Amino acid sequence: MSVVPALDRGAFRRRLEVPALRVPAKRTGEVLQRLRPHLLNMARRRNVESAGAMKMVLLSRELPLEGTLEALPPEVREWLGEVEVTRHAIELDYEYLTAEEALRMVLPVEVPTSFEIVGHVVHLNLRAEQLPWKSIIGEVILDKVKTARTVVNKVDVVATPFRTFPLEVIAGDDDTRVVVRETDCEFRFDLREVYWNSRLQSEHARLSAAIAADSTDPIFVADATCGVGPFAVPLAKHPHVTVYANDLNPAAVRALADNARRNGCSDAIRVRDPGCARDFLRTDAVRYDHVITNLPAAGIDLLDAFRGLRFDENNDGRGPPLVHCYCFAAKTDDVVDAILRRVELALGTSPPPPPPTHQARRRRPFPSPAVDEALRAARDGATTVRWIRNVAPSKDMYCVSFRVPRACADLEYHHRHPPLEAPTLRLDAVEGAGGRTSKRPRTVAPPPGP
C-alpha cells in the first residue's frame, strides 16, 4: 500500500481569477444588495476590493470569466445597465478553504461531506476506501470546525447492546467526555460509553414540550430507554411532570443521574437500576400517563410488554397510557400500514385506527413538526404515525403514538425476547443520584402503584 503523505498546509496556496464588476463607490451598496446570491461569498474574504476611485465587486466562482453578464438572470442584467466587467486575481491559501474544498484538493477518493458534532467531538463514519486518508481527513476537519477538539471515526458497524460503537480518535485530544446543550439543558457524558444522536435535538424538544403541555394536572412519564436523559431531563424541569426512567446501560444511568442533578430536577426523576425495558414497563406501566420508547431498532418489539396489564380505571381517570414509540421503517408507499401491522403483531391486538381526518392520507405519515396534532389525535383514541428523519437512502425514522388498547389486558404475556443482561448498579452508589436539588418547590406526589 502506498504511503499517505502528511498534510502540507502550505501546498494549498494558489492564485485564482474571478469575474468582477467595476462600479462607482457610491453605487457599491445597492450592487451588493441586488447581486447578493451571485457574489464571491467566500469565508474570511471580502466581496469588495478598492480600485482607485472605483470599487471592484467580486462575483461568484461559479460564473464564467467570459460572458459573465449573460450568465446572470435577465432582471439583474437589466438593472445593472451599462457596467464594466473585468477579472480580479485573489490569493488563496489553506485558511480560506472549507473542509470540503481542502479535502477535494488532496484526496484521491470521495470526500466525506457529512458528520455529527457532539460537544467538542466530531464523529465520522468513514468508508473503507477513505480509511488510508483518515489522519489527513481528521486534521482538516479539526482545523475547519471551530468547536472541535477531537475527531473520531466509528471503527465497527456492530453496536453493543447499549447502542454504543468502538471509536478511534483520528485527530486532536483523546477525550470523548463531552458537554452538550439543548432544550435549555446541559448534558455531560462519555461518547464512548453511551448513545447520543445530535440530529434528534428538535425531536427531543418537540415531544417533551407536547407532553408537558398535554395537561396542567400532574403528569407521570415512563422513559423506558432513557439514555442520558434527552427526553427525561427537559420533561422533569416542568413543575407538574414526574419522570420514571430506565436504561439497560449503567453508564447511561449514571450520566442521567448526574444530568438531573446538574439541571436541578433530581427530585422529579426516579431513576431505576439499569435493566430490561420490558421488565420496567411491566412493573410500572400502569402508573403512567405517557410512555416513551426511544429505541428505533427494536422499540416496536417492546410493545408486547403491555400484554396482560390491567390499567387502574380509578387512578384519577387516567386509564391506559399514551405510548410514543420510535421505529425505523423502509420507504414504501404503504409505510403507515406497514408500521401499524408491526404494532398489531407486537401488541397482540389491533391498535386504534388513524384519526378520521387522517384517513384520506393514511398512507402518508404526519410531518415531523406536527407533534401537537398527532398527540391530540392519540389522546382522542387514534393511532398516529409521524415522520421524524431520514436515516438511509431506503430507511426513515418514525414515531407512532397511540393509547394502549384495553384488549391487551386479556392477553397472555409470552416473553418472546430474552432480556439483555447488564451489570448490576445500585443507584445509591451514584453521586448525585438522589436528593432534592430542584431550584423550585414541587408539589407532585408519586403516582399510586398498580
UniProtKB/TrEMBL annotation:
GO terms for molecular function: tRNA (guanine(37)-N1)-methyltransferase activity. The keyword Methyltransferase applies. Its EC number is 2.1.1.228. GO terms for cellular component: mitochondrial matrix; nucleus. It is an enzyme of class 2 (transferase). The keyword NAD does not apply. InterPro entries: MeTrfase_TRM5/TYW2 (IPR030382), SAM-dependent_MTases_sf (IPR029063), TRM5-TYW2-like_MTfase (IPR056743), TRM5/TYW2-like_N (IPR056744), tRNA_Gua_MeTrfase_euk (IPR025792). Residues 115-406 form the SAM-dependent methyltransferase TRM5/TYW2-type domain. It catalyses: guanosine(37) in tRNA + S-adenosyl-L-methionine = N(1)-methylguanosine(37) in tRNA + S-adenosyl-L-homocysteine + H(+). It is found in: Mitochondrion matrix; Nucleus; Cytoplasm. It comes from the Eukaryota. S-adenosyl-L-methionine binds at H204, D247, L248, N294. One of its GO terms (biological process) is tRNA N1-guanine methylation. Monomer. Belongs to the TRM5 / TYW2 family. This is tRNA (guanine(37)-N1)-methyltransferase. It comes from Chrysophaeum taylorii.
